[in-house]
Amino acid sequence: MKDGALEVNSLALETRYVSAGRESKLPGRSVNPPIVRASTFLFNSIDQLETSAETPFDGAFYGRLGTPTTFAFEKAMAEAEGGFRSIATASGLSAIVSVLVAFLKRGDHVLVVDSVYDPVRRFCRRVLEGMGVEISYYPPTLGADIEQWVRPETRLIYMESPGSGTFEVQDVRAIVEVAKRHDVVTAIDNTWATPLYFRPIEFGVDISIHSATKYIVGHSDAVLGVVTTNERTWSAVRQASQDLGACAGSEECNLGLRGLRTLPVRMAQHQSTGLALAKWLSGRPEVSRVFHPALEGSVGHSLWSRDFHGSSGLFSVEFGSLLEDSVRHFASALQLFSIGFSWGGFESLVLPV
Questions:
Q1: pLDDT at res. 28
Q2: String of b and e for 176-200 (b: at least 16 CB within 10 Å)?
Q3: Which of 171, 189, 206, 307 does the annotation list as catalytic?
Q4: Overall pTM surpassing 0.85 (yes/no)
């Protein structure tokens, strides 16, 4: 208690989502911070301009570096993730690219989990290899044995847990211990779990990345990325995101804030419905395997039970003996599921892979 009131940090995480990113004590303030649409911000003197230029990420300086709406979303995400600071970007992929570019240069080596989101593998092939960076794709179930893959020139270990498509859960604790022994930066794509169900920075991971397009926005009406860092990695990632120029718009950041307010309620329903469907499908004769880490018997279930506080609604199913045409007809015949890319919104989606 402080002056008869509850300290904000003592509140349950679910409760803090409602007020994160709002500081104003002015009477008559709006529930959500207003959308500030601006490219240019004005100063009363050259001294003011120069002072702002020295700390462009602590206040409005130029629209590409952020607006008050951007900063409100970034502050809310940093609180949700338990990190030092957050950086809003134009998309989930731009958030990932900012991290890779921040720490890798010619002659460096990066370890990337083999179950990684395919556009990340594509960026590694098209861009990083052309830059002279060497990439090794390690098995997602490696755990502490990743130490055998670390080289003197290894600069970054990139994780995604659960992995895309096959949903292996990585032993983040063990990987972080190895990385710290070798002074290697660690980053993870945390989109599936959201900060509500997994907080990587509390496990010692340096950087947590989200495609906020998915569960954080939650309504399939904005493309947005966000990176949350610890103090050690903040400056490098912020400079890389600035140099890449892939800034988030104020409208998108406002929609990210809107989504955060209802994230705990929505994720509870995603979890419930996803598990119910996964259990039902696991009993169907047409289904050979269900890939859902919260489902007993799935790959990574024990690690999920140890480290996660819940599960989301994204999982995959393997049809053992069905021909490809049969799977296509099945997906096309569904009445309550639409066919489309992305996930995390209110619309149920299916996509043959």
A1: 60
A2: bebbeeeebbbbbbbbbbbbbbbbb
A3: 189
A4: yes
Q: How far is CA 283 from the centre of its chain?
A: 32
Which of 214, 258, 261, 266 is an active site residue?
214
Rounded-to-integer distance, Cα 172 and Cα 203, Å: 7
75 carries an active-site annotation:
no
β-partners of residue 287 are 319
Q: Which of 17, 117, 158, 215 is catalytic?
A: 117
DSSP 309: S
Mean pLDDT of the chain: 89
Among candidates 213, 229, 225, which has minimal Cα distance to 103?
229
Residues contacting 271, CB < 8 A, separation 6+: 294, 310, 311, 312, 313
Helices in 152-249 by DSSP H: which ranges? 172-181, 194-197, 231-244
Least confident of 29-33, 80-84, 90-94, 191-195: 29-33
Give the integer Cα–Cα distance in Å for 230 and 199.
Answer: 12
25 flagged as catalytic? no
Residue 160: how many other CB atoms lie within 10 Å: 24
Amino acid at the residue 245: G
Is the pLDDT assigned to residue 115 strictly greater than 80? yes
Catalytic residue among 16, 22, 62, 64: 64
Q: Which residues sit opposite 160 in a β-bridge?
A: 189
* 215 belongs to the catalytic site: no
Check whether 187 has a pLDDT greater than 90.
yes
Is 214 annotated in the active site?
yes
Question: pLDDT tens digit string along 61-94?
Answer: 666 777 888 989 999 999 999 999 999 999 999 9
End-to-end alpha-carbon separation of the chain, Å? 52
CA distance linking residue 66 with residue 53, whole number of Å: 13
